[in-house]
Write a structure and sequence with these properties.
Helix content: 40-55%
Strand content: 5-15%
Mean pLDDT: 91
Low-confidence stretches: none
CATH class of the largest domain: Alpha Beta
Length: about 450
Amino acid sequence: MVRILPQTKAAAVNPLKSSQPLGAALAFLGIDGAIPLFHGSQGCTSFALVLFVRHFKEAIPLQTTAMDEVATILGGADHLEEAILNLKTRTMPKLIGVCTTALMETRGEDFAADIANIRQKRGEELAGTEVVLANTPDFEGAIEEGWAKAVTAMLERITRPGQQARRPKKIVILPGWNLTVADIEHLREMVESFGLEPVIVPDVSGSLDGKVPDRWIPTTYGGTSIEDIRELGTAGHCIAIGEHMRQPAQMLHRLTGVPYVLLQSLTGLRGADRFVSLLSEISGAAVPVRVRRRRAQLQDALLDGHFDFGGKKIAIAAEPDQLYQLATFFVGMGSEIAAAITTTDKSKILEKVPAESVQIGDLSDLEALGAGADLLVTHSHGRQAAQRLGIPLMRVGFPIFDRLGSQHKLTILYQGTRDLIFEVANILQANRHAPTPEALDPFRHREMPDELCSSPLARH
């Protein structure tokens, strides 16, 4: 059984994780007409905004309540109300997603009560705009928990509760934070190929896919609509992807009775097969020919790529669900997980990571434990460690700011797994060192004992 090693350092060195508020904001950005609002200081929001812009290369509608020293001491309810009303007046959003930060959480305010009072006093002014609260202090958890909390809060606030007439062909998809724009687009196409109707919550493929609008829009444009979230109870099934999406799936089931299935990873032949089989079972339709063809292509890629993966030592630093996704992929290809580092010990998925141990830590732990590995796998902040160790880096997760197109990289199902195999194999081939004569022949230039040199056989 894998050992979970706790963080023992007093401070993070070259941090691995991003904060809970950032994860919640990312989830709110997957909703059409939304604006995430950080309840805290301007610095908290500015830092998250910089990371978002560098990663997505897009304008990000992220706002702040701009708490100063006096407001922090006296209480932030007035600042929160003013910010919500200003956003409503100036931008007319369909959703304002409030993400609390450590500054306000440590003060111990009742944010739910504050927002309830704002709704009661300003109901007419806020008509047509949903205000959703996600409690996301920076001092605990990471991007994974923030995303899940925001999705759970949206379902609890917006989805119409109670048993409703079901549409068997309607499928709710709750994707994990680690699925890219390309992954979610591919998910939708796969579900639709079985004659089903997917509703993806949240859907960053509609709002962060890089399109340029014909006019300036101060909110997100594209993504899941508020009406779709409200009517999730009419779905026949729900599929949650990643252990951290268990809580939102349970919330939807508790509100509406919609049954759910949790799939922990869609990367790899086994994970893709399970998802495709589930869609075939729900729809009652045979697997389409083009999907079977993609599976055959993956089988061929598995054969072609295993020569490059076999016996390689891989060091991975990622959020728990992404760590599990990548570790199972590499082990399935014949590699060994030399080091596994993650951000938090709160996820049960860590117990299933195929490694001897998982270290809760940062990128300095990756550098220490990953020495001697053949490949480092983490986000762009790991590039300095890779340079110092002289080990190639495969960029995954968030943020990736020194490469273009990270959001359009496919990583799931048959096609995405095939592309991952090719990407990793090409990195390893490009960094392969030609063997030296000494490595091939360990007896080359070996000094012979004097007694052998003076023997008649040595003279002849």
